[in-house]
Amino acid sequence: MTKMKPILLTTLYKHRRYIWHNAWNELRYRYAGTGMGLFWNVLHPLVTILLYTIVFSWIFPKRFHEESYVLYLTSGLLAWRILSDTIRRGSNTFVENSRYMKRMTIPAEVYVATVVLTSTLLLVIYYLLFLPFTFLFDKIPGWSLLFLPALLLSIQLLAFGITLICANFRALFPDVAEIINAILPLWLWTLPIIYPETIIPESVRRWLFLNPPYTFIRGIQDIIVARKLPELTDCLIIVAWILLIGWIGDAVNRKLKSQVKEAI
Fold first, then answer.
1. How many helices (H) and strands (E) does the chain have?
2. Mean pLDDT of the chain
């Protein structure tokens, strides 16, 4: 692990300008040809946040009577939405950029990093728009909010490792795209985002950290809803998942890169 990880980081750092340039262009031109263009990047999450707020605090106030549920749901679901979208879009990146990968010497992981960075920028936009809504529920953010950018970055580092794995297998086996599309909605329901964690039996709850995104999303929810920092144990779990999934992604990418180039 110690020999492989620095090489991956060095590669990404070496191509940092290329990654940033393409990620920014993707963000700017994603809605090219539409009347509002770049503003759709703001309107989409804003509509999502407004929808959750209206449905769960006004339409169903009796069933979801706790105001913090809106914040609990939204803070977790926005993170999951970006994570799943990163995996879904990133898994196709080798196929979509096949002509560049064949003609250029840019490493494959750079294309995955570009997708992840674009999604990270969107994630930041989502939470910048969401945080003002916390004042509606008298949840004035505390100093723990300063830790939120680190958690948002960390969940995208997790997304990078997962996406790197998926992109390689997707290039070799086209059916992987359909498997990912089927698994992601099911994966959401294995995480206490739409339902509260308290309904899960204690015997099962203690093992939730084995579900990679769980600790990341719970940390985000703790900062926004409970206004507290993640516990030290959670921070160690987050670091462990990033290193483990990143190492697996790097190993898979190295092992399959020659086969991927032939397949695409």
1. 12, 0
2. 84
Number of domains in the chain: 1
CA max distance for the chain: 60
CB atoms under 10 Å from CB of 50, counted, come to: 12
Q: Which two tokens stand for residue 87?
A: 């995996």
CA distances to 39, 128, 149, 151, 206 from 42, rounded to whole Å, are: 5, 10, 18, 21, 37
**Nearest in space to 249 (alpha carbons), one of 100, 116, 119:** 116
Q: Please state, in angstroms and as integers, the Cα–Cα distance from residue 40 to each residue in 30, 43, 48, 188, 254, following that order.
A: 9, 5, 12, 25, 37
Cα gap 186→176, rounded to integer Å = 15
Distance CA 10, CA 24 (A): 21
- Report the predicted TM-score, pTM, of the whole model to 2 decimal places: 0.85
In the block, which residue shows the tokens 């959750």?
52
Round to whole Å and give the CA distance between 224 and 67.
Answer: 13
Each residue of 59-75: pLDDT tens digit?
A: 554 444 455 777 888 88
**Structure-token pair, residue 173:** 């086996």
The three-state secondary structure class of 245 is helix
Range of the domain at 90: 4-263
* Gap between the Cα atoms of 150 and 129, Å rounded: 18
> Residue 258: how many CB atoms within 10 A of its CB?
9
Kindly write down the DSSP assignment for every residue of 115-161, as one continuous string.
HHHHHHHHHHHHHHHHGGGGGGGT----GGGGGHHHHHHHHHHHHHH
109 Cβ neighbours under 8 A, 6+ residues apart:
8, 11, 12, 164, 250, 253
